[in-house]
Amino acid sequence: MKTNPWSISRLIILVFILGGISFLWLLLGGTVSGRAVTASYALAAKVEGNWGPPLQHHHPRASVSSLSTRESLDQLLPSASEIGVSLNFLPQRKGLITHRTFIASVSGTYTWRNPHPVDVKVDTEIMIPGDTTRIEQFKTTVEDLTLDEAPSDGRVNISFTLPARAEKKMLIQYKANGKDSWIYRLGSGGKARNFTLRLDADFTDFNIPENTESPTGRKSAGQASQLTWTFENVTGVEAVGLEVPAYVDAARVAARMSFFGPLSLGLFFIVLVIAAIRMGVNLHPMHFVLLGAACFAFQLLFAYSVDVLPVLFAFAVAAATSTWLVWLYLKLVAGSAFARIALTSMLAYVILFNATFFFDGYTGLTLTVMGVITLGLIMTGTARIDWSKAIRTNLPPPLPGAEGKTVTV
After folding, report:
1. How much of the chain exceeds pLDDT 90, in percent?
2. pTM value?
């Protein structure tokens, strides 16, 4: 296409076109948030009803009293603790949200030692996940005393006698359904002696929750992880544990893509304008309307196809469709050379940029890098353009005979 110089008025029209399409994008983002995110999170209560909340197991404590006088002596902590935990990750999808559910198998052996020279009664309490989750295969044993019925409130109370200077071991076992995280709390002061907790997980992608201690040992084998916390005599350790792997939240990704769509479209339009000026391509504002609609089709198709398709497949289908529309249209309008430049910039600013929403924490960095690269390309690509000739200012011509005259006000 042979071009006429671009004008300021045409560029202003492009800004209004971008604003109109941006408004549609914001409407789409709000619709996706209301339709998908709110509805899907409403299903989280049902998931929690079946799988329970994040699981917490509390370090046991005991009160000690004299057998002979019934006098309360002191509070007692286990002299040694060996806990084994196995996490089986079984994520559940409800609506557009994949919930991070798992089964935890817990087995703990606690040694209670009587530091007094008299026989004592030990009243122990252990808090396990309570009535908000499902407990199976529960058992607590101290020598010949066994409890095999899980308490509804999550408080395990068992009493036994302990001869002077003697010790006994207490075993507690159970399986529980949970979601998001498994945490072992050491309680007020975070005190423990001869403490060892080994956690075996059938996944390697996990996070250490806030305000919990990092493992003292860590091993990985294939898709499995083994974490160990070992403390000989510690104070101030509030908790240990981990968060299970995070899944891509399709509804949140679709909404964020829609809200950030105008930004990627603006960068795409900037490249198209610069390329058109350099190559002498006369793109009418109506061309930009249709190109914006083709880019908008990407987020629109993804937002609704993700309901029925796997999230990555839905993204690929939407991206391929939108890219094909832009390529075919610009090839007919301006030829293959210009269409290739547009296709390259669309892959970078629309497809690649939106793909970063699948990786939390990288969107801002990607946007910054793309902005800097775009600025560099524009500066180098337009350094030799005579802007006074490339873009008309639409100013009226000077009056005849006015050249070189000075007007005094």
Report:
1. 15
2. 0.65
